[in-house]
Each structure stands twice: as C-alpha cells, then as structure tokens.
Amino acid sequence: MSQVDFYILPGADEDSRYQFLGKLATRAISAGHWLYIHTDSEQLAERISERLWQSAPDSFLANSLPAENIHAPILIGWQPEHLPKTPDMLVNLSAGYPANTAEFSRIAEIVIQSDEVLTLTRQRFKEYQSAGIPPRMHDMRKRST
C-alpha cells in the first residue's frame, strides 16, 4: 500500500520548495529510494534538474531527464510515459494528481503557502483519500526545514 506525505512549508516562494526538495531527496536516496519527480513541464523539469545538480557546495544530487541516457537515482519527468518502469518514490511537484500514483510505495507532496498551490493541494489530498491512500501531514512551519 502506498504512503503519501504532505510537507507543509512556511514560505510561499518556489525557492523554499526546491531547497526542501534537495533535503528530502538527499534523505530518500540515503535510505535507498529511487525518486521520480513529476512536474508540469519540460522547462520546470530542467530547472529542477539544475537545482539538484547544484544543491550543496560539497555535493550534488545525480538526476536525469527522460531524453538523457544517465542511470541516476532521480528521474525528473512531466508526462505519464516518463514514469519509471519500477516505481519507488514519487515527489509530485505538478499541479495535478499524477497517473499511477498507487504504484509508488512512497509519495511526497511539498506544499508552499501560495493560494494556487494550497487550492490544488486540497484537491489532491481528497484524491489520495478517494484512492484509499491515507495522507499524512508534516507541518514544517513548526520546525526548521
């Protein structure tokens, strides 16, 4: 059964979302997970890829886009056909509810305090519940990220 975690961040800016993504990805990879990050567009996927390659001065988070022939622990895609053949952990940074979410053992939603993001997050929260995937909330506003 899948597990979905909503990480509620204190800020409203996309930069805080990407900083948290870097920390989450580092923890997940250290725990042995392979990540699929789902976005809304190729441009956003490329931007996230660059951010992950440069996530920390003393390290990087190896990742690939669907057209690249790189075997990396993080795949970043934006279309249903980009889903990995062996799903493990999904980080949903798209506006919608991705197809085949139930195939992933872990799902993460990173939520910023933007009206648009909050509205879409509430919808996805209900969709996960309807799919029988009980969401867990992690209020990062109460602690440092």
Quaternary assembly: single chain
Summarize model confidence as the mean pLDDT. 91
- Main sheet: strands, sense, barrel: 7 strands, parallel
Shape verdict: globular
- C-alpha Rg (nearest Å): 14 Å
Structural class: alpha/beta
Order of strands, widest sheet:
3-4-2-5-6-1-7
Poorly predicted residue ranges:
none
How many H/I helices? 3
Helix content: 25-40%
Description:
The structure is a single chain. By secondary structure, the protein is α/β, with parallel strands linked by helices. The chain has three helices and seven strands; from the N terminus they run βαβαββββαβ. The protein has helices at 14-30, 42-53, 115-130; strands at 3-8, 35-38, 63-64, 74-77, 89-92, 106-111, 135-139. It has a seven-stranded parallel β-sheet with strand order 3-4-2-5-6-1-7, sandwiched between helices. It is globular, with a radius of gyration of 14 Å. The two termini are 27 Å apart. The model has no long low-confidence stretch (mean pLDDT 91).
Summarize the structure.
By secondary structure, the chain is of the alpha/beta class. The protein is 31% helix and 21% strand. The chain is built from three helices and seven strands; from the N terminus they run E-H-E-H-E-E-E-E-H-E.
Write the layout of secondary structure elements.
Elements: E1 3-8, H1 14-30, E2 35-38, H2 42-53, E3 63-64, E4 74-77, E5 89-92, E6 106-111, H3 115-130, E7 135-139
Parallel strand pairs: 1-6, 1-7, 2-4, 2-5, 3-4, 5-6
